[in-house]
Design brief:
alpha+beta, Fructose-1,6-Bisphosphatase, Chain A, domain 1, D-Maltodextrin-Binding Protein, domain 2, 2 domains, 8-stranded mixed beta sheet
Length: about 270
């Protein structure tokens, strides 16, 4: 990997945060009129999308193109547009569409920037909580400007793990993971937004997050946040078309790393 230019990083970081906040405002306006949205399904009846998702993604894409037309762009709703600069923006316009459509606050805008395949910027904005998580390589992680650092004393047994699952994974496999977690003395919560729960790992609200199958647009921003807050994450294959495919996702604070890795089978 060639050296990452600090100016190139910081200009994209500023744009990522500004765009995430503006996209969150647009998404929030749709949230307040969600009863007017026509809901469509994708892979199955639990995999839903609406005009709000598409409008927000198109706004983010247009904003990036104005300044960095040579960068790649991967969005959940419209797919991969390759670039030539070495930078690729990876975006989930509304992570937690089901909570969003059902009037729950646990959804967010997730924007990551990869440089030659590695997450170097992560911004997650949760409009209903007015919380903006921001991280960049070597710059640390913050929540509304306050520095974040994971607590090494929190463990599987004295904290809680975030968990997610979907129809890409069998019910049996999900049950086995949760059985192992509970047998180890842990416990779990699920809120319907993997990106937001990864931000919560960085913030210390959960000790780790595990999802057996997740896409890059759901996890790349959160991975950057967790790393910059002192946590560990399971590498995600971003080479070529693999960037558009799902994989196991795990991010965790040091005190629970070994046990949660064993439970996850990595």
């Amino acid at each position: 990997m060639s050296e990452l230019d600090n100016s190139a990083l910081m200009t994209r970081l500023a744009l990522a945060e500004k765009t995430a906040r503006d996209a969150g405002s647009l998404a929030l306006s749709w949230f307040h009129q969600r009863d007017s949205l026509v809901v469509e399904t994708k892979k199955d009846l639990q995999d839903v999308v609406s005009r709000a998702d598409r409008d927000v993604e198109q706004m983010i894409d247009a904003r990036i193109r104005e300044t960095f037309a040579e960068d790649g762009f991967l969005g959940e709703e419209f797919g991969l547009q390759p670039g030539t600069s070495g930078f690729t923006w990876v975006v989930d316009p509304i992570d937690g569409t089901s909570p969003f459509l059902n009037g729950m606050p646990n959804w967010c805008v997730s924007i990551a920037v990869l440089y030659q395949g590695a997450p170097v910027i992560g911004v997650i904005f949760a409009p209903c909580f007015d919380e903006c998580y921001v991280a960049a390589t070597g710059k640390g992680a913050t929540l509304n400007g306050r520095a974040l650092q994971v607590d090494p004393d929190r463990t599987l047994q004295n904290h809680v793990v975030g968990f997610g699952a979907n129809s890409y994974v069998t019910p049996q496999a999900v049950g086995e993971l949760l059985t192992a977690l509970l047998a180890a003395g842990g416990n779990f919560i699920r809120i319907g937004s993997g990106a937001l729960m990864l931000a919560w790992v960085a913030a210390g609200r959960v000790v780790g997050y595990l999802e057996p199958y997740m896409h890059a647009w759901d996890c790349m921003a959160g991975y950057c946040l967790v790393r910059e807050a002192g946590g560990w994450y399971l590498p995600f294959n971003t080479e070529g078309e693999r960037l558009t495919k799902g994989a196991k996702v795990l991010a965790v604070a040091p005190g629970a790393r070994d046990e949660l890795k064993k439970i996850a089978g990595v």
